[in-house]
Design brief:
4 domains; about 35% strand; elongated; Elongation Factor Tu (Ef-tu), domain 3
């Protein structure tokens, strides 16, 4: 043993004996043999994952907007439809008759407006007081304004009638898959009667349930993918819903597909690779309540705590790549101990 051990076992030796040992170069502690490796060689970029599901942005129940008997339903459950494609047709005879009636009423009102304008023009050509009174002139002006207003009203009524006619054909508002057909040919539909259910097949997102402790790593991730049915889909984090699920202690994260999209309702896992360097959990040690690593520094072991480290998990680091991490022999070390690197 060195001087420290000798003094413990030989209490009769005094300060003079210690000075004697030091004078002949005997060290007070024996360097402990250890192996070491650079941070760069040990660095990993761990992956995380969370359950996810491909969800459509639009899940619509397509309803009739005008009353009428269902005349045709040219699509079936499971059909893929494009935006603007015909989904259902209603009997439109009554609405076409209403449009014809509105056109006739508008024609009458326009003729009345022409007459009122002519009469007002003639009245203004007369000399007020000789052939016409001020009251008569005002009456003509009021009649012309009333005729013009009636024309505007009937123009709006005609536009509404044409709109009702156009609504006899129910068309897809977006590219979709027909999920349900809730009406049949011959049914009497009223405004609000659900005819079909469509699920968007183009505008999709992935909804993932991310654990609270993994959220920061996700937001800093270099690559995010949705893995399902042995396929991988590139994702981009769009938003994190700022509400914590109190039961699961997780956040809902929404991801956009970067390229190809999965099918609506497809389940899988969201995987991402952290952008921050980490050290593997098997090189960590605990000292004085802190988790960290021992670094070799000029022949001594220096304990470097890692505040974000968790037991059994890779630990994020802010160390220089060239720093030397003590591996074998680290469990018996204390901060400041002498070490002697050996080959692995």
């Amino acid at each position: 043993m060195r001087a420290r051990g000798l003094l413990r076992t030989q209490p009769e030796w005094g300060v003079g004996a210690l000075l004697f040992l030091c004078a002949f170069g005997v060290s007070a502690a024996q360097p402990l043999p250890v192996t070491q490796q650079t941070v760069a060689a040990l660095t990993i970029y761990p992956s995380r994952s969370a359950p996810g599901t491909a969800v459509p942005l639009n899940d619509a129940r397509i309803s009739a907007e005008v009353p009428g008997t269902v005349k045709a339903l040219p699509v079936q459950v499971g059909d893929e439809v494009e935006a603007g494609q015909l989904l259902a047709e209603l009997d439109c005879d009554a609405h076409r008759l209403g449009a014809t009636q509105a056109e006739a009423q508008l024609a009458v009102a326009q003729a009345q407006q022409d007459l009122s304008d002519f009469q007002l023009d003639q009245m203004r050509r007369m000399k007020v007081g000789e052939f016409a009174s001020v009251e008569m002139l005002k009456q003509r002006e009021a009649g012309a304004r009333q005729a013009a207003a009636e024309v505007l009203r009937l123009q709006a009524a005609l536009a509404a009638a044409h709109r009702r006619v156009s609504k006899c054909e129910v068309r897809a508002p977006f590219a979709a898959v027909v999920l349900e057909r809730t009406a049949s040919v011959g049914d009497l539909a009223e405004p609000g009667t659900v005819l079909l259910r469509l699920v968007d097949r183009v505008q999709l997102e992935v909804s993932g349930q991310v654990q609270e402790q993994d959220l920061a790593a996700l937001q800093e991730a270099r690559q995010v993918e949705f893995v399902s049915r042995n396929q991988r889909y590139a994702l981009t984090l769009r938003a994190v819903v700022p509400v914590v699920d109190s039961r699961l202690r997780s956040y809902e994260a929404r991801f956009s597909f970067s390229e190809e999209a999965a099918s609506p309702g497809q389940a899988g896992r969201v995987q991402w690779t952290t952008s921050r360097p980490h050290l593997p959990p098997d090189v960590l040690v605990r000292r004085d309540g802190s988790i960290g690593v021992f670094l070799a520094d000029s022949g001594r072991a220096r304990f470097h705590p890692l505040p974000e480290a968790r037991e059994g998990y890779p630990a994020p680091i802010d160390l220089e790549p060239s720093a030397q991490v003590v591996l074998e022999g680290r469990f018996g070390l204390h901060d400041g101990d002498l070490i002697a690197p050996t080959a692995r």
